[in-house]
Amino acid sequence: MNGAESLIKTLVNNGVEVCFSNPGTSEMHFVAALDEVDGMRGVLALFEGVASGAADGYARMAGKPAVTLLHLGPGLGNAWANLHNARKGNVPVINIIGDHATYHLQYDAPLTSDLKGIASSISDTLIQSQSSAEIADDAAAAVAAASPNNVASLVLPADVSWSDNPSPLPEVRAPNTLTPVSPEKIKEAANLLSKSDAGMIFVGGYISTELGHQLSRISQATGCRICVETFPTRISRGAGSAKVEKLPYLAEMAIDHLKEVDTLVLLGAPAPVSFFAYPNVPSVLQPDGCTIYELANTDEDSLAAAHALVAELDAETVEPALNGEQLPELPTGDLDAMTLAQALAALIPDNAIIVDEGATTGLACYPFSEQAKPHDWMTLTGGSIGYGLPCAVGAAVACPDRKVICLEGDGSAMYTIQALWTMVREQLDVTVVICNNSKYNILELEFARTGARGGKPGKKAASMMDIGNPSMDFVAMARGFGMQASRATTAEEFSTQLAEAIQTEGPRLIDAVVPCLQLG
Amino acid sequence: MNGAESLIKTLVNNGVEVCFSNPGTSEMHFVAALDEVDGMRGVLALFEGVASGAADGYARMAGKPAVTLLHLGPGLGNAWANLHNARKGNVPVINIIGDHATYHLQYDAPLTSDLKGIASSISDTLIQSQSSAEIADDAAAAVAAASPNNVASLVLPADVSWSDNPSPLPEVRAPNTLTPVSPEKIKEAANLLSKSDAGMIFVGGYISTELGHQLSRISQATGCRICVETFPTRISRGAGSAKVEKLPYLAEMAIDHLKEVDTLVLLGAPAPVSFFAYPNVPSVLQPDGCTIYELANTDEDSLAAAHALVAELDAETVEPALNGEQLPELPTGDLDAMTLAQALAALIPDNAIIVDEGATTGLACYPFSEQAKPHDWMTLTGGSIGYGLPCAVGAAVACPDRKVICLEGDGSAMYTIQALWTMVREQLDVTVVICNNSKYNILELEFARTGARGGKPGKKAASMMDIGNPSMDFVAMARGFGMQASRATTAEEFSTQLAEAIQTEGPRLIDAVVPCLQLG
Fold first, then answer.
1. Which of A22, A152, A265, A297 has the least C-beta neighbours within 10 A?
2. What is the ipTM score, two decimals?
3. Fold for domain B183-312?
4. pTM
5. Cβ of B110 under 8 Å from any chain A Cβ?
């Protein structure tokens, strides 16, 4: 067994089943080993940012990491942006970064770079494997380091791959879990929320149906509000889920949302903060004098803490306040953000997965679908554009029996459009909705908010936000990847096409032509 | 004048005229300042890897840097791979990396990352600007640090952009130049080459017509060979250029190419080394006992050194051995790497710029075009795939009066396909030739050479090199960006379409369907 084979075998033994790959020469023995070792699915991506975003989406849904296979420093560079999203979302990912043979590095060949530097900048743990005798142990350590919520990178020199591994494979380890919250903290949170007139639990990460139900019980027992962070990693919602608020994106609106709160209990989320800084707008969003209490940080077990808090409050028998199923009529007339959101809410199938990178057009979709059929919703956790299409790839690989709907801005689609090819190749059950308004509409909004040039862009600045010159035809692009696609310009067309896409299994794109969100 | 305006004004004063941009919220004051300050052209890219590759291509042709405008750590991540190519090619690039306001960083907002870490890993110089009073000086320092051949990164916090700059602008500085080579080194090189029976000058970087002529004189005066590195940054060639060799890519062939050499004089190139390591193939390519003498490193002035060496050898009046113009017939019959190369050599227009990322299909194009009309040829200096289309954007912006022809593999095209949009937007005079063989053909070759699985890929491994499932239609993709495009499947079709593209100004794509290179 060579190093690469022992590496893959160890990954499989430790529950890692999928490798999102964009390999090069230094990874050829790893690629060869996919045929020698059972149990590892290789999913090819045409660009490393697709691989890393897919690993993020996979782990959000599977609850365990996939690996990426990347080609030296530049491969990791291409993967970096979506790894950033995974880190900010506390999602486990393992990177296998192929490198030159150990003895070849001294010659500074063209693909030699500061691999340690770039890998350190994006990894919670970095392991630089040095010998084939150690690679399997290193792999086991990487899996352990990634779980439950970290990015671990394993640098795999080519000679470590191709040399024999004489060592026995390491023992299989149980994956790491989140840390329990102490009983003292539960008591303190119960105390704070009970005595507060205007308490709020601010919750982040994965908000499962079960977690939502517990939070609703706490809310009813104490009178506190429940508010989800602006960009949760994953939230189970729709009919049967607990009613929860969501913090608005815009700092001014978020400040308004929090203005009455006197006690903020953090559960798997950092304290709320403005996404960007703006002149004369505070970065901190809660009011002065508000008590902040961290019940569970992102390394701690929010769900167990919520159960314990319910028990502490004797609220186990309280009925949670749940959303019913209430589907809007299918819209007619113009296609815009509102009618698009209405059609989506009406048509979301049971147990669907929504990947939201719809930017300004997507804004209306979340509130509209609160009482849609039960579904999971995933968001752009780290603000690094280009996560949506790759995340949909990963979610569909993790959950082949669930429909994935990807809401994607036209601008953001163009960061990782290559993901369409992998959707077709793997025949993933993904419906992509391009929210095509021919603008960096969010930047128009932000330009005004930053007060630059009095909020009025000049000719050159306006041109930097205008992606309609030339206009992009996503139907043509999708067909370039062999993907079925259609364009919708009215609410009726969109509803018909979305219904058809949902009823038919397999990849499909809808180029939804919508006007820009009108601001101010 | 705010910080952003003083920054752009300083860049312009110091000769920087073009900004390849993919901005976000934190860069809005920079974008606004494009309208307030004269002299900076903003070229929008849909992805940061296009911006950085374009800055590389621009500087290779303009001989001075452009700036990129990038959005925090993830924007730099996306730009990283093509910055790697610029660094390996000793090409100057200045990155302006927008960051959160200085006071906002402490809150760890979603887009906060280890920006210093990733920026350090790809920059020769990193300047983290801290105040609007200093930003203009920092900008002048960044221009100085980038010239003549480095990557300099300037981190620009949003509040540094938007705050007033009360300081006077810095004085304009003359750009840095390459270091002269000492007379002693010239004498020593002359001595070594004169007494050697089998000397070779190994030359890299920018090999201008003038440099080629000087090298040819040295060759005739001393009997030494002249060999260009495998992936030069830029070489002026075709009719009227000196006859020079080029080191083959494959290590075995490179070793064979160098096997007689007893004295290797390095001129603007590091000593030759295998691109990758392979089991049982040496990394070092020159024969044992070969004397290596570094006449000029990549920071030294190769052209001046060559002139001095010619003078030292009293060879000023020696006629250089030049290539004549000898154009092949237009090919007929099957379209393959050979007939594609033949058509290209016949049709390259005078003073064209060839950007070569044609991978295996492109291999034949270089030797075939040795006696074509005079042209510049640029290559993938750092091995980081996805440089071709962006580099063509930058070259065309730098040289609006010259035709750019981009030879692009289908696999490599997919790393930065968004560059087509910028070509259309700016109406750049670029002809893109996609060498579409539906394979990672180079990986099939490399798989065999690494000896993985006895050189015979299994089913999964073969699938990782098969990008024909689904097959990609580059004509459809190009039309998705509003670009005129056609498909060629015979030599006649290709010749006709290439001739038409060359005669017509503006962006155009040819999807050239070719068989894989047959190996072994």
1. A297
2. 0.98
3. Rossmann fold (3.40.50)
4. 0.98
5. yes
